[in-house]
Amino acid sequence: MTHLTAIVLTRNESAHIRDCLAALSFCDARLVFDSNSTDDTVNIARESGADVLSRPFDTYPGQRNAALEAVSGKTDWVLFIDADERVSPELANAIRDALAQGDSYAGWRIARHNYIFGKLTLGAGWYPDYQTRLLRVGAAGYDPARQVHEVVLLDGALGTIDRPLIHHNYKNIAQFIDKQRRYTAYDAKILYEQGVRPKPQNYILQPLRQFKWRYITLKGYRDGFHGLRLSLLMAWYEFRKYQLLRGLWRDHDVAVI
Prior knowledge:
2 domains, alpha/beta
């Protein structure tokens, strides 16, 4: 029978880890891959019957690749789950159905329901929000160059599971702003490393395109004021990305003078 191990990457996730692991009881094994938590994450994980391994955090793909290496030879498939995500019984059954197809696939992507500020968000790009999380060991890995928004590299076919994974995403607007600031800084750095210089029109056209894409094309309007606010926030951070990019080039130009 196919052996499935759930892996949860953690750092200070004591508020989430117990419920997360409870929803993973259908798996043959559960591994908490911890990054030196200073709260009760590790104790709760062990009390819940999970195995625990610790590794200092370097990058997200680094952690995930290290976790895959740790279970190599011990399991056939891995299901990566974040501590603030939950697997419903319906999704658990769909995962087992996928595994029953054997080695026809190297990985499976799973649709995700994002709850933002406590509200299920189906527009503005947050659904179906496919995440490639069910991986055949030995046929999958993570691109080390993509340190944020990790990219899975598969040696084989990719399947799709439409039973959604539940994600308790941003709890409040402060958490949303904090994460978007970090994502925006990373995206600006990537553009800088690619040699992209901001043009005057980027500060207007790119945010407008982002808003139109989120609110109209991706149907953010279906979420009412909630969708409007998210679309406006993402347009603002598109503007900020080009501001940060301008700053990187300004510092570069000063340094070479």
